[in-house]
Design a protein that fits this description.
With 127 residues, the chain is mostly beta strands. The protein is 0% helix and 48% strand.
Length: 127
């Protein structure tokens, strides 16, 4: 059974930081592009960031550039999303998703690109 599990969400004050983890089981993460998405109440799911299988290429939504950093540790079969300077508008359920490395990286911001999704972890950036 292929599975992605997110963790690390929580409640932080505006300006605070969180580090999300996306751990893979049932497959080797080395061969997959990973994307982070989020969905706030009443809003459409939106792409946040994505990273190539090697970690050599990354992409960020304009709303998080300069504040969020995606990285991966393939030896640990895990991808991370470091979130700094959190804002109330960052409040959402965050999901990670995977697609084989043969996929076109330029499509990594689109949810339709991905085959497997985690269950999500709640991030709340509010007082």
């Amino acid at each position: 059974q292929l599975q992605l599990v997110e963790s690390g969400g929580g409640l932080v004050q505006p300006g605070g930081s969180l580090r999300l983890s996306c751990a893979a089981s049932g497959f080797t993460l080395d061969y997959y592009i990973i994307g982070w998405f989020r969905q706030a109440p009443g809003k459409e799911r939106e792409g946040v960031s994505c990273i190539s299988s090697s970690g050599g290429s990354t992409n960020y939504a304009d709303s998080v550039k300069g504040r969020f950093t995606i990285s991966r540790d393939n030896a640990k079969n895990t991808v991370y999303l470091q979130m700094n300077s959190l804002k109330p508008e960052d409040t959402a359920v965050y999901y990670c998703a995977s697609t084989p490395r043969g996929s076109m990286f330029r499509l990594c911001e689109l949810s339709e690109t991905y085959d497997y999704w985690g269950q999500g972890t709640q991030v709340t950036g509010s007082s």
